[in-house]
From TrEMBL, chain A:
Keywords: ATP synthesis, CF(0), Hydrogen ion transport, Ion transport, Membrane, Mitochondrion, Transport
GO cellular component: mitochondrial membrane; proton-transporting ATP synthase complex
Pfam family name, one: ATP-synt_G
Compartments (UniProt record): Mitochondrion membrane
Record protein name field: ATP synthase subunit g
Family of the protein in this entry: Belongs to the ATPase g subunit family.
Source organism (scientific name): Helicoverpa armigera
GO MF term list: proton transmembrane transporter activity
UniProt record, GO biological process: proton motive force-driven ATP synthesis
TrEMBL record, chain B:
Localisation: Mitochondrion inner membrane
Protein name: ATP synthase F(0) complex subunit e, mitochondrial
InterPro entries in alphabetical order: ATP_synth_F0_esu_mt
Function field: Subunit e, of the mitochondrial membrane ATP synthase complex (F(1)F(0) ATP synthase or Complex V) that produces ATP from ADP in the presence of a proton gradient across the membrane which is generated by electron transport complexes of the respiratory chain. ATP synthase complex consist of a soluble F(1) head domain - the catalytic core - and a membrane F(1) domain - the membrane proton channel. These two domains are linked by a central stalk rotating inside the F(1) region and a stationary peripheral stalk.
GO function terms (MF aspect): proton transmembrane transporter activity
Length: 99, 82
């Protein structure tokens, strides 16, 4: 038991050294893919919202293939799940509200 | 960006990134707001409960005393009969 406890720092340091390159790769992708939108991209965002609204109004969203619809639904769900991550950060508790 | 194992990063549409960040911010605000609201409500409930607990404890004490007295009386009667 004591030897197992003594090995923990070594295990943690090996885990960190092994995970570091992967984390660096993750950060390289995240810098681009998870970057907050720039001010210069506002027109594109506006155009995107307009597109969503027109497709909702005209019913164009019904005219897509099953594959497209699945992908769009998954992307939409992912975007909405960020709300729940934010809620967990805001309430500073993972499960339920800690009152 | 040449040694990336999964090819160049995808250019995610600005709309999606805007949506993610705005939902994240909205979630943080909602969570903080809701948390403070619920904890205020819970605080009030705790206060009321603490007041009621004093009353209830007193009542239970009295009932216990009455029950104990009745028991002792019954025992004494039983002993006296023999």
């Amino acid at each position: 038991m004591a030897s197992a406890v003594g090995k923990i720092p070594a295990l943690v340091s090996t885990a960190i050294t092994l995970a570091r390159p992967k984390f660096n790769i993750f950060m390289k992708y995240a810098r681009v893919e998870l970057a907050p939108p720039k001010l210069s991209e506002i027109p594109q965002i506006k155009a995107g919202i307009g597109k969503l609204l027109t497709s909702a109004k005209t019913g164009a969203w019904k005219n897509q293939t099953v594959k497209q619809a699945t992908l769009n639904a998954l992307v939409g769900a992912e975007v909405i799940f960020w709300f729940y991550i934010g809620e967990c950060i805001g309430k500073r508790h993972i499960v339920g509200y800690d009152v | 960006m040449s040694e990336l194992p999964f090819g160049p990063p995808v250019r995610v549409s600005p709309l999606i990134r805007f949506g993610r960040w705005s939902f994240l911010g909205a979630g943080i605000l909602y969570g903080a707001f809701h948390q403070s609201r619920l904890s205020k409500r819970e605080e009030k409930l705790r206060e009321i409960e603490a007041k009621e607990k004093v009353i209830r404890d007193e009542k239970l004490k009295k009932e216990k005393a009455i029950a104990a007295a009745a028991e002792i009386k019954a025992l004494e009667e039983m002993v006296a009969k023999k």
